[in-house]
Amino acid sequence: MSTNTEVASASNKDAHLSELFADLRTEFVLVFQTLLTQKLPYDVFMRVYTKIYEYCNYRGANESFSCSSSLSFYVNLRDFLKEFITVQLFEKEIKPALADPASLCSAYGRLWENFDVFSTALDGLCQYIDRFLVPRGTEAGIVLVTVKQLCKQIWKEEVFVRLFDAAPQFFDVVLHEERQNS
């Protein structure tokens, strides 16, 4: 039977993870927007990493998070990535280029390269969170994929599939270019 103190402590831990995620959400958007115009500067990566480090070592260091609060952090991350990829990337960057296959190829390639770097950085940052805050894995019989795998899965669902539905000619152009380069 849970005591009021245990329930309050669990709520407090969940609130800390929610607060951390709210802070990180803003930082993740800034990191990706930076990647749209330049390579990821070391100082930008380190600013986010430092925020996570300080949170893990000073604010959440002595807290043990339940599997349910850990999962909620990753559910929030998944939902953020779906929204971000759909709105920021597909709707604002790729959809306007649908009329011209050449500009679509260019936009898609540029965004994929930037998103791949972003997902690698995000995976590294979240691995740090895993080690210090979030017990992932089999605690509740749930196997979570890495953040990089999650990013690629969401990219496929939110961009690749939408793009295939909206512009099958894009794939014809890509296949033709691949055959020419072989």
Q: Count the beta strands.
A: 0
- How would the global form be characterised? elongated
Strand content: under 5%
Rounded radius of gyration (Å)? 19 Å
Order of helices and strands: HHHHHH
Please bin the fraction of helical residues. Answer: over 70%
Q: Return the structural class.
A: mainly alpha
| Model regions low in confidence, pLDDT < 50 over at least 5 residues | 4-10
The description of the largest β-sheet is:
none
Count of DSSP-assigned helices: 6
Beginning-to-end CA distance, first to last residue: 66 Å
Overall pLDDT: 75
Would you kindly provide a written description of the structure presented here, covering whatever features stand out?
This protein has 182 residues and is mainly alpha-helical. 80% of the residues lie in helices and 0% in strands. It is built from 6 helices and no strands. The chain has helices at 4-37, 42-59, 67-94, 101-132, 147-166, 168-181. Helix 3 (67-94) packs parallel to helix 5 (147-166) and helix 4 (101-132) crosses helix 6. Residues 4-10 have low confidence and may be disordered.
